[in-house]
Amino acid sequence: MPCGVPQSPVVTVASPGPGTLLAFVMATPIIQLSGLGKVFRANEVETHALSAVTLNVLPGEFVSIAGPSGCGKTTLLSILGLLDSPTAGRYLLTGKAVEKLSATERAGIRNRSIGFIFQTFNLIGDLTVFENVELPLTYRGVSTAERHERVREVLKRVGMTSRMSHYPSQLSGGQQQRVAVARAMVGRPAILLADEPTGNLDSRNGHAVMELLRDLHGNGATICMVTHDPRYAHAAERTLHLFDGRIVDGAESREGHELEESGFELA
Predict the structure, then answer these.
(1) Could you tell me which residues are beta bridge partners of residue 25?
(2) What's the pLDDT score for residue 217?
(3) Residue 33: helix, strand or coil by DSSP?
(4) Over 80: is that where the pLDDT of 197 sits?
(5) Which of 14, 73, 225, 263 has fewest C-beta within 10 Å?
(6) 66 beta partners
(7) What pLDDT does residue 159 have?
């Protein structure tokens, strides 16, 4: 089942030829950023983490946000996930303005609409695999029967059914990340946000987690992933390159040269 992907309205129009119809989908972006900026202030010093970022993400897209360390990737993902607020610009999430919401309002939307996959897994050590995945649904007040059905469903999808009674310390890094993916999926969010999901994994387990994300995308999930690794950035169907807090392309020679030195290929 797709991870809470909103259904786009389908409009049918008559084609020029007799007796035929053309159907096309008018897709409304899940994420719309316009002129987004973020400034951090400390001891009268301003740090511009993001500048004039404009971006649309459509339902069912797999977008990677790539670039060298310190370019603003994690700041952008934090704003997308409503963990932080921008200091300038607009942010529409599923068509609703969210850039000026209170912390409580942002928390409510995160719980309903956003799934997070972190580099450090963030599993609770004294809970089993099943209980870790179930926890977000407990906060939502979902009934016990539905919670258990949904947890078993997502654990099956990530290949962790046989480990549901294990504790995180009994799992490999790759297995823990699969559990983290299941926990992000169980609430059927509108979008999955992955922050360096392969950062703490060896190449074999990193590849396995990327295959899992590609499979989820193939089944309709909308994914935004931050990575500094060009191998995994190319797994997405679209890659955004950040440099000094701005989206750049190959036309910007200095930034393009430095990104290519980091291993990224610019179109």
Answers:
(1) 10
(2) 92
(3) strand
(4) yes
(5) 14
(6) 227, 241
(7) 92
Give the span between the Cα atoms of 252 and 244, in whole angstroms.
12
* Other Cβ atoms closer than 10 A to 70: 14
- N-term to C-term CA, the chain: 34
| Of 59, 102, 64, 97, the residue nearest 196 (C-alpha) | 64
Which H/E stretch holds residue 55? strand 45-57
Angle among Cα 181, 183, 138 to the nearest 5 degrees reads 175
- Read off the tokens for 160: 């962790």
pTM of the model: 0.79
DSSP conformation class of 87: S
Domain 59-82+113-261 fold is Rossmann fold (3.40.50)
Whole-angstrom Cα distance, residue 236 to residue 221? 12
Look at residues 181, 183, 221 and name the one whose alpha carbon lies nearest to residue 62: 221
